[in-house]
Amino acid sequence: MQRAALFALSALACAALVLALHLREVSRADAAGYARAQGEASQLAADLSREFQKGKDRALDDAQKRLATERAAADRSRVDADRLREQLRGAERRIAAAPDAAVRKYASTVTELFDACVREYRDVAAAAAGHAADVRTLIAAWPRMPGAPVPDDEGR
Prior knowledge:
Largest sheet: none
Number of strands: 0
Order of helices and strands: HHH
Signal peptide: 1-20
Distance between the termini: 85 Å
Protein name: DUF2514 family protein
Helix content: over 70%
Number of helices: 3
Keywords: Signal
Oligomer: single chain
Organism: Hylemonella gracilis str. Niagara R
């Protein structure tokens, strides 16, 4: 009986040793797997960061190009307005000497021009109000950390 118990105890010890070795190998594999997963996650984070940076850089470059185009358009508009202002300075003198039909045509043209300007200004104001509303919506909907303050209408 002792021999059978000793044999059973030996078998149990061998099984425990095999189990311990197996657990050690699993633990090593888990550690290696964890390290590999951690490395992959770090690489993914770095890749995402680079892509976000590229997107931000593209957006800034595009904004600079748009700004340059808008400045050029504003400069052209300023030159046109200055030219028109110069023409209008002499209008009073020219109107005084012009025939009645020419004065009526001038008044009609100025009225049409004024109406067109009013329509354009209204369209610009409506577009600006729409853009401002979009900005406020995006700011309000942008994800925030829990407990972070909600920005006001000016994004602060």
